[in-house]
Amino acid sequence: MRTEWRSLILHALGVTVFTLVAPASAQVHPLAPEKAFRFSARALDPHTVEARFIIADGYYLYRDKLHFAVEPAASGLVTPSLPKGKMKEDQFFGRMETYRGNLIVNLTLPGTTPGQKVVVQAESQGCADLGICYPPNTQRVTVPLPAAGSAPTPQDDAPRKQWFK
Amino acid sequence: MGTAALLALAGGVALAVWDQSPRDAAALLSLSLPDTSGRQQSLAQWRGKVVVVNFWATWCVPCREEMPEFVKIQRELGPKGLQFVGIAVDQVEKVEQFASELNLNYPALIGGYAAIELSKTLGNEVSALPFTIVISRKGTVARTQLGAFDATKLRSTIDSLL
């Protein structure tokens, strides 16, 4: 019984403190960009890497601000073909193409050696429906390439690992 | 004894939080950034006015959408000592183009990512835009707003400081 009262008081204290420090205006609380636009990459074979963005609900990326690079340069990344997004009419910039939900882009690397590691870099810029935009954001992932003839590496655990960040 | 300690803690915390002194906008007001003509403009030149610093970019739709209202408020309250200052995280040409389309009546300065980093220290944790800071004549932060600034709330904040 006593333990329950204590936790209740602590809980009430927490709520009180939070209310006192919370800003006076109705503020928006957007996700950090790495959480709004979760980037991961895995090898499908020694010359193909699947790059993936898991875009949170209520967030979107601009197609024309999406750029990929792979290190080392000898990997020879072929300019990837991007999937079709949704068209949006913008007063200033005209027709804009955006992505929501899961975005998958296959990266072709003719110059890689089976078994080597590559670093995939994704630059993206997006906004949230709640009314904010992020500056361009760069995310990098190291991808081990399989030896010749082996199966694609399994889907990365990345989202789960980031819970504790 | 446990309960008494907890109540004392609650009282102490409440007192500490209530006693928050207003944040100093000194770092922001000592910024010097180029305008679209390339001329360096020091924000310190507007000390003593009610300064509304708005971080924006042409690639940020919600930013563009709220600016016509800023132009209106500047026109009405400028003579009473209000000064909007826009800091664009953007290319000069795009800023110039949009500023002329809008008949912008307040300075549009060009800030790089260092400027956005500065906004982090004022509460913009995810470095997003638009981010607006209202500074009192004494140089303290009266209010910050992440996302579009509701016109009524903005006007009442400014009115209370003029």
Task: Please supply descriptive tags for the structure shown above.
heterodimer, A: 165 residues, alpha+beta, 5-stranded antiparallel beta sheet, 3-stranded antiparallel beta sheet, 17% helix, flat, disordered C terminus, B: alpha/beta, 5-stranded mixed beta sheet, two-stranded antiparallel ribbon, 6 helices
Question: Nutshell version of this structure?
Answer:
Chain A has three helices and eleven strands; from the N terminus they run ααβββββββββββα.
Secondary structure: elements and pairs:
The complex is a heterodimer of chains A (165) and B (162).
Chain A: H1 2-21, H2 33-36, E1 37-45, E2 48-55, E3 59-62, E4 67-71, E5 86-90, E6 94-99, E7 102-108, E8 117-124, E9 126-128, E10 132-133, E11 137-144, H3 158-161
Antiparallel strand pairs in A: 1-2, 2-7, 3-6, 3-9, 4-8, 5-6, 8-11, 9-10
Chain B: H1 2-18, H2 26-29, E1 32-34, E2 40-42, E3 50-56, H3 61-77, E4 82-88, H4 92-102, E5 108-110, H5 113-121, E6 131-135, E7 141-146, H6 151-161
Describe the protein in words.
The complex is a heterodimer of chains A (165) and B (162). Chain A has 165 residues and is of the alpha+beta class. Helices cover 17% and strands 39% of the residues of chain A. Chain A has helices spanning 2-21, 33-36, 158-161; strands spanning 37-45, 48-55, 59-62, 67-71, 86-90, 94-99, 102-108, 117-124, 126-128, 132-133, 137-144. Chain A has a 5-stranded antiparallel sheet, with no helix packed on it. A 3-stranded antiparallel sheet of chain A has the order 1-2-7. Chain A is flat. Mean pLDDT of chain A is 85; it is low at 19-25 and 161-165. The model of chain B is unreliable at 15-20 (pLDDT under 50). Chain B is globular. Chain B is 43% helix and 21% strand. Chain B has helices spanning 2-18, 26-29, 61-77, 92-102, 113-121, 151-161, and strands at 32-34, 40-42, 50-56, 82-88, 108-110, 131-135, 141-146. The A-B interface holds A 2, 5-6, 9-10, 13, 16-17, 20-21, 23-28, 30-33, 62, 65, 90-93, 125, 127-128, 130-135 and B 2-3, 6-7, 9-10, 13-14, 17-18, 57-64, 89, 98, 101, 113, 116, 123, 125-130, 143-148, 150, 153.
